[in-house]
Write a structure and sequence with these properties.
Strands 1-7-2-3-4-5-6 form a 7-stranded mixed beta sheet, sandwiched between helices. It has about 300 residues and is of the alpha/beta class.
Length: about 300
């Protein structure tokens, strides 16, 4: 039986974990673009009729804040999109050193650009998200909130975190600076989950791929935003909320779309030749067949 998207998302997380571990063993830091390209390659090989992807010439990172775009669809014909920034763990510090990246003190933060660009097209709003490539040596306790699978720490090889959560974490950083950092993987474990949860999870809702994705976003990813914001002081929270108020109206009302943007349809027809946005390096469509998910523990 051929693998489902769920199977492959899980296996690619384990592969990413193992690859970073191998790099750690010889003190070789692997970049996020390399990991992204190899994960996309394997997804396309395993799912030639379900995964469509186009990578454009690399543009300068940081000016736009999004280097990957995800679109999910299924038997319902509905769609949901994400603007994604990939980050890889620094194997020397076990942290995501560039999670709060900005070019210099006079430039904006990458996270803020990511959020802004996710809502730049009001007809097709997307969810801003971070994809974290991870590995660690030892950790005393690993949280596990999945309602579908047993805990496997290597599943965190590819993890997801809301960009709004990252924005709150940037303000939270000052509060905990004397103890640790919001960029430390051990700290972030409280708010992230393996990326396969987006496509596999039936614990938060049934349905085809886009329906599972949006239900998981509502029930878990958004919860992490609230958990972080509630730890901020009232004044700090109000300040951040004021910065984000132009986006929250749209963000809170995101629903499944009847159709994707035109450039996504062109990608499906292998006719996408021009880059739709200057700094989006890769666009990937996940189009699940109408079949049950396998549960192989």
């Amino acid at each position: 039986m051929r693998p489902t998207l769920c199977d492959t998302f899980k296996s690619r997380a384990l592969w990413t974990w193992d690859t970073l571990a191998r790099g750690r063993s010889v003190k070789c830091q692997i970049g996020e673009e390399t990991l992204t390209d190899l994960n996309i390659l394997e997804l396309k090989i395993r799912h030639a009729s379900e995964v469509y992807s186009k990578t454009f010439t690399k543009r300068k990172e940081g000016s736009n804040g999004a280097d990957w775009e995800w679109w999910f669809t299924g038997s319902s014909g509905k769609w949901i999109g994400f603007r994604v920034q990939a980050k890889v763990i620094d194997i020397d510090t076990d942290s995501f050193k560039h999670l709060h990246y900005h070019k210099n003190k006079n430039s904006g933060f990458q996270c803020d650009y990511l959020i802004k660009e996710a809502f730049s097209n009001k007809e097709f709003p997307m969810i801003p998200l971070y994809c974290l490539y991870s590995n660690w040596n030892t950790l005393s306790k690993v949280p596990w909130r999945c309602l579908t699978y047993y805990p496997v720490e290597e599943s965190y090889g590819c993890s997801i975190l809301s960009a709004f959560a990252v924005r709150y974490l940037r303000s939270f950083e000052k509060k905990i600076k004397s103890k640790s950092s919001t960029k430390d993987f051990e700290f972030l474990l409280n708010y992230i989950n393996p990326w396969h949860c987006l496509v596999c999870c039936r614990g938060y809702g049934e349905g085809d791929l886009p329906n599972r994705v949006i239900k998981y976003w509502r029930n878990f990813i958004r919860r992490s935003e609230r958990e972080i914001s509630e730890q901020l002081s009232l004044n700090t929270r109000r300040q951040v909320d004021s910065e984000l108020e132009n986006y929250y109206g749209t963000y809170n009302q995101i629903e499944l779309l009847d159709n994707p943007p035109e450039y996504v349809l062109r990608l499906l027809e292998n006719e996408l030749n021009e880059q739709p946005y200057p700094n989006v390096r890769t666009i990937t469509v996940f189009k699940e067949w109408d079949e049950p998910i396998s549960y192989n523990y």
